[in-house]
Design a protein that fits this description.
Elements (H helix, E strand, L loop, with lengths): L2 H12 L3 H14 L4 H13 L3 H14 L3 H17 L3 H14 L4 H13 L3 H15 L3 H4 L2 H8 L8
Protein name: Tetratricopeptide repeat protein
InterPro entries: TPR-like_helical_dom_sf (IPR011990), TPR_5 (IPR041656), TPR_rpt (IPR019734)
Pfam families: TPR_5
Length: 162
C-alpha cells in the first residue's frame, strides 16, 4: 500500500464516506492479495469501525505476509484485542504473548495482555502486569512515593500480612 492510497482512505474516512473507503481497499486488495500492509490497513479500518469479525482475518494475513516493525506491533495488538472483544480469549492470550516475545518493552501490548489475562481468570497475573507497567511508566509522584510497596504487593496480591 502506498502513501497516496493511505491518504485517499484517510480522507474518505474523515469525510464519513466509509463505504467508498472499503470499496477502494477491497479493490486494491484484489490485485495485491500478498500485500501485508494493505491487509493491515483494512484490518485496522474494520477494527476502528467496530467490525472486529471482518478485521481479524486481515490482521492474521498481514502478520503472515510480513510487516515492518511498527505495523507488526500494531497488528499483534490489534489482533489480540480483536480476539478478546470477540470472546476468543485463548487466541488473544497466545497472540499477545507472542507479540510480547518480539516486543517485550511495548507497554501497550502489556496493558492489552492484562485485559486478556483478566478474561481468562488469571486475575493476579493481570494485576501484576498492569501494576508493573504503571510503575515503569508513571510520572505521578503520588504513585511513585509508594513504588516499593506496590512492586512488592503486585507479586503477592493475596498475601495477608500478619
Amino acid at each position: 500500500m502506498n502513501q497516496q492510497q493511505k491518504e485517499t482512505i484517510d480522507l474518505l474516512l474523515r469525510e464519513g464516506n466509509d463505504s467508498d473507503a472499503f470499496k477502494h481497499l477491497h479493490k486494491w486488495l484484489e490485485g495485491n492479495s500478498h500485500d501485508g500492509d494493505l491487509h493491515y490497513y483494512l484490518a485496522s479500518t474494520y477494527d476502528s469501525k467496530g467490525n472486529e469479525k471482518k478485521a481479524y482475518p486481515h490482521y492474521e494475513k498481514a502478520i503472515e505476509l510480513g510487516l515492518d516493525e511498527e505495523e507488526l506491533k500494531g497488528a499483534f495488538l490489534g489482533l489480540g484485542s480483536t480476539y478478546r472483544t470477540l470472546g476468543m480469549y485463548e487466541e488473544s492470550k497466545s497472540t499477545l504473548e507472542f507479540g510480547l516475545t518480539k516486543f517485550p518493552e511495548d507497554n501497550a501490548l502489556k496493558v492489552f495482555y492484562s485485559l486478556t489475562l483478566y478474561n481468562v481468570r488469571e486475575h493476579e497475573k493481570a494485576m501484576e502486569v498492569l501494576l508493573t507497567c504503571l510503575l515503569e511508566t508513571t510520572q505521578d509522584q503520588n504513585i511513585l512515593q509508594y513504588r516499593n510497596a506496590l512492586a512488592l504487593y503486585s507479586k503477592q496480591l493475596n498475601r495477608i500480612w500478619v
